[in-house]
Each structure stands twice: as C-alpha cells, then as structure tokens.
UniProtKB/TrEMBL annotation:
InterPro entries: Vesicle_transpt_Got1/SFT2 (IPR007305), Vesicle_transpt_SFT2 (IPR011691). Pfam families: Got1. It comes from the Eukaryota. Coiled coil: none annotated. The chain crosses the membrane at residues 36-57, 63-87, 99-119. This is Vesicle transport protein. The keyword Plastid does not apply. It is found in: Membrane. Keywords: Membrane, Protein transport, Transmembrane, Transmembrane helix, Transport. It is a multi-pass membrane protein. GO terms for biological process: protein transport; vesicle-mediated transport. One of its GO terms (cellular component) is endomembrane system. Belongs to the SFT2 family.
Amino acid sequence: MDKLKRVLSGRDAEEPSGLAEVIDATSLGWGTRMKGFVACFAIGCLCSILGSCLLWIPKKGLVLFAVFYTLGNIASIGSTMFLMGPVKQLKRMFEPTRLIATIVMLLCLILTLCSAFWWRKAGLALLFCILQFFAMAW
C-alpha cells in the first residue's frame, strides 16, 4: 500500500532514502512553526530589551548590552527560519541583492562578540552593534 501511495503522489517506486525519511520526519506543521516563531521572536525582543536595560550598569554595562543585543538579533533571525525553513531562509539571505547586507550583518555579529569577550573593547562592541542595526535595516 505504501508503494501505491508513493507512486500516486509522484514519488519514485523505490524505497525512500534515509535523507528523505529524515526530512519527512522533521517537517513541522503550521501551528508548530508559528509557536516556534513567536517563542524565538519573543526571546529575541526580550534579549534586546534586557541589553538596553543593562547598558546603564557601570563598567560592564556596555559589554552586556552588546552581548544581549547580539543574542537578540540571532534569536530574531532564527525565528524567521521557523516560518520559511532554514534552507529557504539561507537562500533568500544570500541572494545577490541581499548578499552584502548579510555578510556585513554576520560579520558584525561575530565581531561584536569578539570585541566583548576576547578584545574587551566596549567602544568597539558598541560600534559593531550600531553596524548590526544598520545592516539589519538595510
């Protein structure tokens, strides 16, 4: 019966490969996608707001802001992957019209975390946060 279903649905009459079984098993329903989107987007907004609140802490505030702002951006980008899927999201991010903005944004995400943790330069972390914002808006 399974072979008949595969033939009628347009799939090959052969047994599906292991990769096809994994893809079928991991595909999410629309309700689950919406829940994942809302959860990741809420976490991203919460991290960004928390980072803004932590900005005013003396000495460590700027570094905490940079880290939480960056984590918020990563969570927000991850939230859209629930809606369209990771492969389609990456294809759209790396289209020729968005390629420069995507590279700048990813580079600024990495450099913000590097400047906060390894280089310990708060001003540089703030500069990369500003560049993140402009790259995301672009």
